[in-house]
Specification:
By secondary structure, the protein is an alpha/beta fold. The chain has helices at about 1-5, 70-75, 90-95, 115-125, 140-155, 180-185, 215-220, 225-235, 265-275, 300-315, and strands spanning about 50-55, 100-105, 130-135, 155-160, 195-200, 210-215, 240-245, 280-290. The model has no long low-confidence stretch (mean pLDDT about 95).
Length: about 325
């Protein structure tokens, strides 16, 4: 297949007859669409649209996540040759019609306008009948995404994998902050706290607003499988939105992020955790806070690309 594509000068990011299927192009060349999916704004027949929100003006420390979607896409070129490991042969790229919807356009000098643009961007994807897997960008982008999802599905079970709960209080509705998005989402009724969980936490919060915390130490000591089962039980059959902040991983596994905290999950633990969540009613998800300027050898971008692939698997698993 790779030889055939090379002879015919095919770049499947632009020329793809079928939205399904593995890809066998050279990993080191060609357009950096996510997983070599077709770039398109036509969502007819699309199951899942992957889109980027390159916004990082709500960070408390190091910027750079505006470059995250591009880096994750480039790193993903290593993955579409085979079905992902650990899913009993399930091949989301063959089972699902997945498209790269490109990045959301916005005026970087009008940051106050960005949340409404994000909400409308995601609502447009959902309105076309597709699910959205979003590449960030800082974690503030999740709040308007949740608004769009809750408008369609009602209050969501949030599974947030993160070093931070992002439930620090913030009563100024005009602020855009990646550390308070979850607080605001709870206060707006977007999240069903009784069904929601935080995983990998290793920072202090006085009041987590009813969301259950499985801190990093619990994952290390009890095991990712045990924690995943508890999270699944709590979510039940509710519609789930899964937000994965790459700083959930320890800095050794994800150095390229704005607010690194030691003692985090390993890549192996994160992979096991996500695979063991199979069966949740996932309706959408994101991977955020990949900051390429602080990355080494694309370690963090590669991790982000794998997380996004696992989100595809989770979305498709219950729809087989």
């Amino acid at each position: 297949m790779a030889l055939e594509d090379a002879k015919n000068d095919v770049d499947r990011a632009f020329r793809r007859d079928d939205l399904r299927g593995l890809a066998f192009e050279n990993a080191f060349s060609g357009a950096t669409s996510f997983l070599r999916r077709a770039y398109t704004k036509d969502l007819g027949g699309v199951d899942v649209a992957v889109t980027g929100i390159p916004f990082d003006q709500a960070v408390t420390n190091r910027p750079g996540t505006r470059l995250g979607p591009r880096a994750i896409r480039a790193a993903s070129s290593l993955q579409p040759f085979d079905p992902p490991y650990g899913w009993d042969g399930y091949s989301p790229l063959e089972a699902l019609a997945v498209a790269d919807y490109g990045d959301m356009a916005f005026d970087y000098a009008c940051s106050a306008d960005v949340p409404a643009r994000i909400e409308a961007h995601i609502a447009g994807i959902l309105g076309a009948g597709a699910a959205a897997i979003t590449l960030g960008g800082d974690h503030s982008i999740t709040l308007p995404i949740l608004r769009a999802y809750a408008a369609k599905f009602g209050p969501l079970a949030l599974i947030q994998v993160d070093a931070h709960t992002d439930t620090w209080p913030d009563d100024d509705a005009s602020r855009i902050d990646h550390g308070t998005f979850c607080y605001t989402a709870v206060k707006e009724g977007l999240i069903d706290v009784a069904r929601s969980s935080h995983i990998g936490i290793r920072t202090v919060v006085d009041d987590n607003l009813g969301i259950h915390i499985h801190d990093a130490r619990e994952v290390h000591e009890a095991g990712a499988s045990v924690v995943a089962q508890a999270v699944k039980n709590r979510a039940g059959t509710a519609p789930v939105y899964l937000s994965f902040d790459i700083d959930a991983l320890g800095p050794a596994f994800a150095p390229g992020t704005g607010t690194p905290v030691w003692g985090g999950l390993s890549s192996a633990q994160a992979g096991c955790l996500l695979r063991e969540l199979a069966g949740i009613n996932l309706v959408g998800g994101d991977v955020v806070e990949v900051s390429p300027p602080f990355d080494s050898a694309d370690i963090t971008a590669v991790a982000g690309a794998h997380v996004a692939m696992e989100l595809l698997c989770l979305w498709g698993w219950t729809r087989r």
